[in-house]
Each structure stands twice: as structure tokens, then as C-alpha cells.
Amino acid sequence: MLVDRLTYAIGDIHGRADLLARLLDQIRADRAREAADGAPTLTIFLGDYVDRGPQSREVIDLLLDFRRDPAFECRFLLGNHEDTMLDYLEGRISGLGWSRHGGGETLKSYGVAPPREDSRSAWMARREAFRAAVPATHRDFLQDLELMIAVGQTLFVHAGIRPGVAIDQQSKRDLLWIRREFLESERADPWLVVHGHTPKAEAYGAPGRLCLDSGGYISGRLTAAAFAGDAVRLIETGVREPRLFPVRLAGAG
């Protein structure tokens, strides 16, 4: 069985609080139709909440508000963009590289103007203003993010896994960054890996994996999946009704 309880997973958000608000409303409505009892419904966010889009701060505020809803048991994965944001906040990187992957949009969402000068020193000088602008609740949220979550035969991670490596031996870097070695592999492990990180215009998959990163900050489509037993349905902003999505375990051809 893919999952042993009704479970939702939400793909990469990237600073689109407007899309997230719509998708959460759709998930609430879906749960009202599908939940068999009053127990909290597991809801997993796959990471990359910040950067690229204009509303990173608002996204985190929405997530913090949603996790207070007693109808849902929320768990949040770490994405490579949150990891980079933490690296900048905690002084492990200059921030110049981050600026080329949406970091400037995140600064602006917290009311901090990005440096005009494209240099390491300029970004390092802006760090203290950003630290002061990020609420402690947001720092705590980022620091508590998880690397992987297993439910039944389904493994939720941000980017993917290293084929041939035991789950408990996976590296943080692979879980947050891997692409080609995972996406192009024919795995023999027993997992359905649900991930984000590598966007296309809509959700896509192959035997043993399902990607929910539909490039919302560009496409205007944010995607979630609802798992119930061995059935998977996609819930998408801009699409009225959920649709079944066929999935196969690794090695199933």
C-alpha cells in the first residue's frame, strides 16, 4: 500500500502565497469530501517555500497559520532554497550566489532592499538588516524543517534519493539537490518517491517517482497530490476537479 492513511503532499511554492492560499482552500474542500473520520489528516510540504516569487514571507506566514488548523497534521520538508536562506542568515555564505536564484525577491518580501552592487561584500553587508527583518518564528520554522518522511511505501523528499544507497545513508546534499542521477535511474528499491525540485509545467512521474513541482512561480499552477491507499489524485490551482494520476513502484516497468 502506498500510504496507510489519507495524505496530502504539496509541491514547490517559491514565494507564491496567492497560489498557496488557493491550493489550501482546495485541500480543505477535498478533505471535507474524502476524510473518513475526524482524525487530523497528514499534510506534507515538499520544500522550496521561498525565493523566485515575490511573497516568500507571506508564504511562511500562511504555512504557520495552516499548521494551527486541528484538521491537519502538518509536516514540512527542507528544500535547497530554505537551506541556502539559512546559510545566508547564519553567515556560512556571502549571499551572492543566492541572489542569482531568487534571494533578492526573498529579501524584498521582508522589506529589505537587495544590494545594488553585484558583489560578495555588498551582500555580506546586507546580512544584518535581513537578520533583523526575519521574525524569530520564521527562523524557528526554517531550522525545524525535516529531510525526509516515510508513509507506507511512499517516501517524501525534496529533490530525490541517490539510487543504490540505503535510505538511512542518504546524504543531505542528495536529498536537497540531486537531479539527473535520480531522474534518469531505473531503481529497484520498494519506494514511491514523491519529490519536487525539478519543475515542469505540470506534475510528472516515472516508475518509482512522482514530481509535484509544476513551476508555480512561472506557470501559475501549484500542485498537490492526495494519497489514499494505492490511489493518487492531483489537486491543482486553476483546475476545478482533482484528477487521478497513475503511479508505479520502481521496477514495475
Could you explain how this protein is built, in words?
The model has no long low-confidence stretch (mean pLDDT 96). Helix 1 (17-34) runs parallel beside helix 2. The longest helix is centred in the N-terminal third of the chain and has 18 residues, at 17-34. This protein is α/β, with parallel strands linked by helices and 253 residues long. It has helices at residues 17-34, 56-66, 80-89, 96-99, 103-109, 120-133, 136-143, 172-177, 180-183, 216-219; strands at residues 7-10, 41-45, 72-76, 148-151, 154-157, 192-195, 204-206, 209-211, 223-228, 231-236, 243-244. The strands form two sheets. A six-stranded mixed beta sheet has the order 3-2-1-9-10-11, covered by helices on one side.
What is the secondary structure topology, with strand pairs?
Layout (H helix, E strand, L loop, with lengths): L6 E4 L6 H18 L6 E5 L10 H11 L5 E5 L3 H10 L6 H4 L3 H7 L10 H14 L2 H8 L4 E4 L2 E4 L14 H6 L2 H4 L8 E4 L8 E3 L2 E3 L4 H4 L3 E6 L2 E6 L6 E2 L9
Parallel strand pairs: 1-2, 2-3, 5-6, 6-8
Antiparallel strand pairs: 1-9, 4-5, 7-8, 9-10, 10-11
Helix pairs in contact: 1-2
